[in-house]
Amino acid sequence: VLLSTDGSVLEGPTFSLGWVSEGTLETPGLDLGILDSITRRIVLGLCAGIGIEVAEVRADLGRVAAATEVMAWSTLREVQPVTAVGSHGFEPGPVTAALQEAFARAVREPSPVVDR
């Protein structure tokens, strides 16, 4: 996990990062200089469609370590649970599972841009 100079969680070298805190999916905001990736946009859009509340936040590793779920999003790996951040372990949870299912469904559906 990449951190800013002030210790804020940013992203991974090839993935965006999200975690669940008190039922809300949190992710670093674009104002921190992270990549505005297509995969990140899709995941956040899917959240709106399936009723997952999202907050873009500035957080340190302690906040991520206190989360109930942590996940990575990338074009290659899609939505994947993160099982550890440092010495803090995590189990895949219902938000991760819902996003994995929604993302897989979205990938299977025809896209007007891709199918031309």
> What are the low-pLDDT stretches, counting only 5+ consecutive residues below 50?
none
The largest β sheet comes out as: 5 strands, mixed
Q: How big a fraction of the residues is strand?
A: 25-35%
Radius of gyration: 14 Å
Helical residue percent band? 25-40%
| Helix-and-strand structural type | alpha+beta
Instruction: Write the H/E string, N to C.
Output: EEEEHEHEEEEH
Distance between the termini: 37 Å
Q: How many individual helices? A: 3
Mean pLDDT, rounded to whole units? 92
Tell me the overall shape: globular
Across the major sheet, the strand order is: 5-4-3-6-7
Please count the beta strands (DSSP E, at least 2 residues each).
9
Q: Your description of this structure?
A:
By secondary structure, the protein is an alpha+beta fold. The protein has three helices and nine strands, in the order ββββαβαββββα. The strands form three sheets. It has a five-stranded mixed sheet, covered by helices on one side. A hairpin with a 2-residue loop joins strand 3 (16-21) and strand 4. It is globular.
